[in-house]
Amino acid sequence: MNDSFVLPEGLPRPMPDELDGPYWDAAARDELVAQRCNACGTWQWTPEHLCHRCHSFDLEFAPVPGEARIYSWQRPHHPVHPVLAEACPYVVVLVEFPDADGIRMVGNLVAPPEGEIPIGATVDPVFEHHEAEPPYTLVHWRIRA
Amino acid sequence: MRTKRTMRGQVAVAGIGETTYYKHGQSPDAQFKLTLKAILAAAEDAGIDPCEIDGIASYADDKNPADRVAAALGMKSLRFANMVWGGGGGGGSGAIGNAAMAIHAGVADCVVVYRGLAQGQGGRFGSGAGYPGALAGSYAHTIPYGVMSPAQMFAMRTTRLMHDHGISRSTLRAISMASYHHAQNNPRAVMHGRPLDVDGYDNSRWITEPFRLFDCCLENDGAAALILVPADRAKDLKQKPAYLLGAAQGAEYRAGAGGHNNPDYATSSFKTVAPDLFAMAELGPEDVDVVQSYENFTGGVVMSLIEHGFCTYENANEVIAFDNLIAPKGKLPLNTSGGNLAECYMHGLELNIEAVRQIRGTSPNQVEGAEVAFVNSGPMVVPATNSLFGSEATL
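YS: structure for the whole thing
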């Protein structure tokens, strides 16, 4: 248990698969990547075998350009999992990348759980490394000062 | 000559059946027994021999399989067995639509649509404790961040709806209070005898902001069933037929994109489905007398009502007001049995049954002279589905 974690350990962890493995590998290196089509340049998230725009199977992972902004949020108070019994409330944000075709990512906001959450605020990723077996990294968000 | 492709008015609901509705975990009966009781009740209501049923339609990964139902009932022959994709309540109206399609196409003659649900036995939607320790696919990008329950999956759509269009807290509250108000006249309702006022709503605990407790559906045990037959046969059976004027299903562009990446985010997924419904029915929202709109969460009802044209983004706060939503006098009577919030969370099949009652004139909150009754099933999922029922006068 690491007190700096946003949520306690013991929640379900991500299991990388053939599609999103490069994303989780990059997160372990404190890098944020997403899927981009080599044929037409379209960004898509979550990853898929096929580009939804041009139907190319030639897809790669690349650093996500531009700023991330808070698109929406929620503040869970009711612990739906036993691990969360002492961890509520917490804040979930949906962040949007306007310069990457508007793809969005879900994470927790690294901030005190109370107060207004400003939609539109610029956020930066925070990489939370878990020393499990195998290790994994969660990607959270912090409002840029 | 090519005939017009429509099933408007070709199929009718002839029978409806429900078990007692219980709080979750309180059913004395097994889930499958509940299902059989509801089907038999629907057959008796219609006045048909249950062995004559030759088709089965359900939705949402129903755990009461068609083969077992057909065997248990002693159905002489099973000619149609079908289920709508999707794990939530999105498919209730779609199952009715599929049943009607089978009948209209000549594939089956008497199809039962059912939902049997004992959340004390089959697991609760609202709990995240059942997930495995590691998750792959798009869930890996949400659940480890504590986005686990349906309320948490849909809350951020509502936050964005309220942000983009100024939808107010009082609008969400009006939807909840309307369901509770109607439940007080409905002895079947789980929340009968449990009225809800403004303070009760405002002082209720947060589940996940922006949802308070009373913005969220119940979790229940019970079963519900409807029996559909060709329109000409329905006229000769016991009950006044409720004709299916239209049914549609689907969602807009990339509505199912993973990790909350549907491009049009704050939507109930009805923007393309609603026009299909009204086109088949040859009617518009202004022709609807009573509305049953699936409340998984109140925010989804707001989106559904807007996307079906019952109000606009601009006037939603004025139209979706308590006095307007109350039968018999309101301009937009909503969820007149108490719905998922206060009658029973039978994954919205009870909303279709209530629409049939309104057409028959037998609702506990009857809208006088109701000729056209609208239902939309679970919003914000793919496929989203809807249905429209009418009296003989609408044909």
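YS: worth flagging: The radius of gyration of chain B is 20 Å.
IM: good catch. Also The mean pLDDT of chain B is 96.
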